[in-house]
TrEMBL record:
This is RGAP1 protein. It comes from the Eukaryota. Residues 1-42 form the Phorbol-ester/DAG-type domain. One of its GO terms (biological process) is Rho protein signal transduction.
Length: 260
């Protein structure tokens, strides 16, 4: 190391003259001692230098599966590294100006993202992730499958509802499906942390409007009012699916594999 930089795993500085490990794909930098704690999911740098300011999720995804945007991976990794003891994770807002500033910085950087260890308030990192997902041209579940998700979540029988939800998830575009799976696994970790005090109900209220949204870009006031409780229900039902279902999407090299 010539120029001291923070370790992407523990957050403390790697000092001048010390040996460090750097990933040649995603540029993650870490202490040699932190290698075992290194996040396993690595997304290669895209060929372009910057991401668009807005777009559908596939515009930000890498070219090889799992198709999870680097920004989502780094925000989630940072939150899981030092945020799982924070009360109100994702519910407590981060400073709005810092959220906008970091989102702009990350989008401008494209795949070679600056380390988020220098962001003192973890709620800002949470805010960046939520703002990125909210800023997409269409929600993660897509406009075309919006109604299918709502109908699946309304099925009263648990087994039939789970089967219907698995089927609708499998119809998502690959980038949306992989990213949804990655986020569900993350939110399950948050819900299981007693310090966060964010159970499935709390998380579904926060992420319902963001992940499920509406069936069009310009919903009517009536649609907004009717959709809100159903959005939360969809996310709560998705979080009730077993982690093994979601892991099947992000841990496989076969892009179109639909786990049973």
């Amino acid at each position: 190391v010539i120029r001291p930089e923070p370790c992407c795993v523990c957050g403390s500085r790697i000092r001048f003259g010390k040996t460090a490990i750097k990933c040649c794909q995603c540029q993650l930098l870490l202490h040699t001692k932190c290698r075992e704690q290194c996040p396993s999911l690595c997304t290669p740098r895209p060929h372009h230098h910057a991401w668009p300011r807005e777009g559908v999720l596939a515009d930000f995804a890498p070219s090889t599966p799992p198709l999870v945007p680097t920004l989502v991976v780094q925000c989630v990794t940072e939150v899981e590294t030092r945020g799982l003891t924070e009360t109100g994770l994702y519910r407590v807002p981060g400073a709005e100006q810092l959220v906008r500033e970091w989102k702009r910085k990350l989008l401008r950087a494209g795949g070679a993202l600056p380390a988020l260890g220098s962001v003192a308030d973890i709620h800002v990192v949470c805010g960046v992730l939520k703002d990125f997902l909210r800023g997409l041209k269409e929600p993660l579940v897509t406009f075309s499958l919006h109604l299918a998700f709502l109908r699946a979540a309304d099925i009263p029988d648990d087994a039939a509802r789970d089967t219907a939800l698995r089927h609708v998830v499998s119809k998502l575009p690959p980038a949306n499906r992989d990213t949804l799976a990655f986020l569900m696994l993350h939110l399950l970790k948050v819900s299981h942390s007693p310090d966060c005090k964010m159970d499935v109900l709390n998380l579904s209220r926060v992420f319902g409007p963001t992940l499920v949204g509406h069936s069009s870009a310009n919903p009517t006031p009536l649609a907004i009012m009717e959709d809100t409780p159903r959005q939360c229900k969809v996310v709560a039902c998705l979080l009730s699916l077993p982690p093994s279902f979601w892991r099947g999407f992000v841990e496989t090299e076969q892009e179109n594999l639909v786990p049973m």
